[in-house]
């Protein structure tokens, strides 16, 4: 296996994590990762060094943008009832953050996850999204404010920050 | 040295949490947070948010990677279908002969193409199997059909004459951004083709081909109207029909 493929392979778990948080649905998330890998492998010979990691996140982010655009006019399906509404602790928090993420606009969700979950620098995220750093920062600020408000709105008594 | 009295901005608070702040300013921010409980609460909530995100999603890192993501497998057998849900194979389609190969604005709207073509294929599949009610207005009332669809769709809908194919009739269907017209044709052997048209956002695109299961479709847009000709997977045959539709639309549109 070439060094290139090894570095791609090493990224698969993290790409899956990012995709899962980005789209929620496990199958769609893995579809995205699979398409990302296919693209990456196809471009192996075109890849002239550089940061494989950022490059893979860039492909995945763009594929998801295209996917969402094509689905944009389809109705979004939401669960009618939240079963397990009084689940507690980590599980409930996980569900709250999932729901908060799903109400973010695409670019903000992507920035938030790349910075907070994948630990990317502002510079890297700016390159991935093809925007200036200032845009990344304002997207991040808006995303954090939105998620915080959303979570606190959902579980006000548990979320009061001291 | 920075001046500790310079107010800390919101950007700096984010940069502080994300370790993007220059080292010499960290102390100032910490002093600021000690004096500003609201900002301290925000910073704390962002940290908690990051922890929650990791608690929710880090488990994915430990999952076994599904077989379909193994590189060896992908090298041998790249996935043909881009997205299970949007299962349309996209191919830049260069039609032979004089078929309109209009490149203007082509690559700009791959997704509009996808969803539109999927709508057309859905309609195709739904109605071609109908024996008794494949259409609302039968082909014997061609003039009425054309007038009705023109009135409802808002552009000149003509049912083209296709050699070897009989017009079964047409329907009005919901399209992506308004009404769509749907015409069905049949050969003597019972093979059916449908022509789905609706207003398009793009003025014109090149012709593209998509296959889904046992159905094939050719898509293009011209003068603000998008066309999808659907039929079987015989691409040559489909191309002939689509070419014929295209040529007649060209003539009519003048």
From TrEMBL, chain A:
Q: Which CDD domains match?
A: Sigma70_r4 (cd06171)
Q: Which residues form the PhyR sigma2 domain?
A: 9-60
SUPFAM superfamilies membership: Sigma2 domain of RNA polymerase sigma factors (SSF88946), Sigma3 and sigma4 domains of RNA polymerase sigma factors (SSF88659)
Q: Name one GO biological process term.
A: DNA-templated transcription initiation
Q: What domain of life?
A: Bacteria
Could you state a single Gene Ontology molecular function term? sigma factor activity
InterPro entries listed in its UniProt record: PhyR_sigma2, RNA_pol_sigma-70-like, RNA_pol_sigma-70_dom, RNA_pol_sigma70_ECF_CS, RNA_pol_sigma70_r4_t2, RNA_pol_sigma_r2, RNA_pol_sigma_r3/r4-like, WH-like_DNA-bd_sf
Give all residue intervals belonging to the RNA polymerase sigma factor 70 region 4 type domain: 96-146
What are the entry keywords? DNA-binding, Sigma factor, Transcription, Transcription regulation
Q: Which PROSITE patterns match?
A: SIGMA70_ECF
Q: Which Pfam families match?
A: PhyR_sigma2, Sigma70_r4_2
Q: Which family does it belong to?
A: Belongs to the sigma-70 factor family. ECF subfamily.
Q: What is this protein called?
A: Sigma-70 family RNA polymerase sigma factor
Q: Which species is this record about? A: Bradyrhizobium quebecense
């Amino acid at each position: 296996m070439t060094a290139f493929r090894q570095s791609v392979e090493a990224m698969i778990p993290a790409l899956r994590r990012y995709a899962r948080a980005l789209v929620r649905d496990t199958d769609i998330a893995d579809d995205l990762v699979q398409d990302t890998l296919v693209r990456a492998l196809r471009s192996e010979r075109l890849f002239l060094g550089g940061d494989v990691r950022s490059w893979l996140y860039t492909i995945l982010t763009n594929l998801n943008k295209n996917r969402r655009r094509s689905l944009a006019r389809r109705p979004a399906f939401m669960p009618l009832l939240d079963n397990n509404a009084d689940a507690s602790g980590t599980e409930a928090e996980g569900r709250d953050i999932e729901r908060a993420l799903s109400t973010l606009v695409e670019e903000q969700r992507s920035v938030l996850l790349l910075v907070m979950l994948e630990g990317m620098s502002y510079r890297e995220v700016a390159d991935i999204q093809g925007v200036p750093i200032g845009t990344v920062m304002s997207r991040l600020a808006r995303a954090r404010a939105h998620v915080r408000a959303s979570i606190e709105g959902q579980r006000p008594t548990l979320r009061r920050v001291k | 040295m920075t001046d500790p009295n310079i107010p800390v901005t919101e950007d700096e608070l984010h940069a502080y949490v994300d370790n993007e702040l220059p080292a010499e300013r960290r102390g100032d921010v910490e002093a600021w947070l000690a004096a500003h409980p609201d900002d301290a609460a925000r910073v704390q909530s962002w940290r908690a948010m990051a922890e929650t995100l990791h608690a929710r999603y880090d488990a994915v890192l430990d999952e076994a990677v599904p077989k379909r993501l193994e590189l060896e497998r992908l090298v041998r057998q790249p996935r043909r279908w881009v997205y299970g849900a949007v299962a349309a194979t996209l191919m830049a389609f260069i039609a032979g002969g004089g078929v309109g190969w209009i490149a203007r604005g082509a690559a700009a709207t791959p997704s509009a193409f996808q969803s539109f073509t999927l709508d057309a294929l859905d309609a195709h599949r739904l109605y071609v199997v109908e024996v008794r009610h494949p259409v609302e207005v039968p082909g014997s009332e061609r003039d009425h059909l054309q007038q009705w669809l023109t009135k409802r769709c808002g552009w000149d809908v003509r049912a083209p004459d296709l050699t070897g194919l009989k017009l079964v009739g047409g329907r009005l269907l919901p399209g992506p951004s308004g009404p769509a017209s749907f015409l069905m044709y049949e050969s003597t052997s019972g093979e059916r083709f449908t022509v789905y048209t609706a207003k398009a956002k793009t003025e014109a695109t090149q012709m593209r081909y998509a296959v889904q299961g046992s159905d094939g479709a050719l898509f293009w847009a011209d003068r603000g109207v998008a066309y999808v000709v659907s039929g079987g997977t015989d691409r040559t045959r489909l191309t002939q029909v689509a070419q014929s539709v295209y040529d007649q639309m060209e003539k009519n549109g003048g």
